Amino acid sequence: MGESNGRRTGRQTNRRDIYLKLRQMVLTLELAPGAALSENELAAALGVSRTPVRESLIMLAQEGLVQVFPKIGSFVSRVDPAQVADAQFLREAVELASLDALPADLDPEVVAELRGNLAAQRREGLDLEDFFALDEAFHQGLMKLSGHANVWTTVAAAKGHLDRARRLGLHENVSPAVFADQHHEIFDAIVGGDIALARTAMRTHLRAVFSDIERIRAHSPELFATGSSSVPVRRNVVVWE
């Protein structure tokens, strides 16, 4: 009985690990929007059987990050501007509400963590994925400052399309310094007690993704969804590095 449960737990862990790995590959654009997906190739690359790969693709399809077309194949979903807008709407509502919930006396340890995060965002040679991780940690830190850190898990689970759009925006910009500057503006307003300014700066910061989408779509329309019923064509696609 114990051995059977152990094997079952191992299989479940394996499925979960493969799902998380493939999800990360989609979100980081390692598997680019519109890319054709081969269960055999993915299984070989990850060193697993096809079963956990197939199950993971089904889970990603449920999230809207993968599309499965019978008799054609599976593809990474193109970035859907409508889903980006929905996720951004949710994120903006939560993060602005968290600013309204900030206590009069800010936790000095969390403030120190945020200062360290902002300093790290200025490091020379920081690659985009490292900056993205710091960006996520910064916003989660602001939620923590308001006493609602656990809410970030719900927000993060709902913003797959938004995260891909944000990464496309980071690739499009010469430097992430503009985003670091916006983070500093938000933080300085919070520490200075000017919540109205912090809200305005946060709203501007979070909505920057929309102008990024329009700019990128102008020269790379193939990365974006044009309709839920459109069927992709198997072809070589860009893989971001």
Structural write-up:
- The protein contains ten helices and three strands; from the N terminus they run H-E-H-H-E-E-H-H-H-H-H-H-H.
- The chain is mainly alpha-helical.
- Strands 1-3-2 form a three-stranded antiparallel beta sheet.
Largest sheet: 3 strands, antiparallel
Q: Roughly what fraction of the amino acids lie in strands?
A: under 5%
Q: What is the SS-derived class?
A: mainly alpha
Mean pLDDT score, rounded?
88
Q: What series of H and E elements makes up the topology?
A: HEHHEEHHHHHHH
Gyration radius (Cα, Å) is 20 Å
**Percent helix:** 55-70%
Q: Which ranges are low-confidence, i.e. pLDDT below 50, for 5 or more consecutive residues?
A: 234-241
Strand order of the largest sheet: 1-3-2
Determine the N-to-C terminus distance: 46 Å
Query: Number of DSSP helices?
Result: 10
Number of strands: 3
Global shape = elongated
What's this, in brief?
The chain is built from ten helices and three strands. It has 241 residues and is mainly α.
Offer a few descriptive terms.
241 residues, disordered C terminus, elongated, mainly alpha, 3 strands, three-stranded antiparallel beta sheet
How are the secondary structure elements laid out?
Blueprint: H1 2-27, E1 36-37, H2 39-46, H3 50-62, E2 66-69, E3 73-76, H4 81-100, H5 108-120, H6 128-145, H7 151-157, H8 160-172, H9 177-191, H10 195-219
Antiparallel strand pairs: 1-3, 2-3
Helix pairs in contact: 1-3, 2-3, 4-8, 4-10, 5-6, 8-10, 9-10
